[in-house]
Design goal:
Elements lengths: L14 H12 L4 H21 L5 H12 L6 H15 L12
C-alpha cells in the first residue's frame, strides 16, 4: 500500500481463480458455500472501508502486508488482523506479561 494511503488497496485476481481459491480455502464446493464466503468477504470489505482510519497506521501496514504476501488475500482475514492488533493493545498490562500469557 502506498505511504499515506487512506484506504486499503488490493490486487484482484480474475474471477475463475478467485472462485477456485475461495472455495478451496473454505472447503466448500457448493454454490451456497461460495455465496456465503463471498458475502463474508464483501461484509468485511465494507467494515474495513468504514473503519480504516480508526486503526493505527502501523497495524494497517502490517496487516495489509501479511494479507498480500503469498496465497489469496482475504478481507475477512485482514479485518481480523486489524481487530486483533487493536484489541491486544487494549489488554491490561497484567494480562500481557509474565505467567498470565
Amino acid at each position: 500500500m502506498p505511504a499515506g494511503s487512506t484506504t486499503p488497496t488490493r490486487s484482484k485476481t480474475d474471477g475463475d481463480e478467485t472462485y477456485f481459491l475461495r472455495l478451496h480455502r473454505h472447503g466448500s464446493r457448493s454454490r451456497e458455500g461460495f455465496n456465503a464466503c463471498m458475502k463474508d468477504e464483501q461484509d468485511a470489505r465494507t467494515r474495513i472501508a468504514s473503519q480504516w482510519e480508526t486503526f493505527l497506521a502501523s497495524d494497517r501496514a502490517s496487516c495489509t502486508q501479511n494479507e498480500t504476501t503469498g496465497g489469496s488475500p482475504s478481507d475477512v482475514e485482514l479485518l481480523t488482523c486489524l481487530q486483533m492488533a487493536r484489541d491486544a493493545r487494549a489488554l491490561p498490562a497484567d494480562k500481557t506479561e509474565g505467567s498470565n500469557r
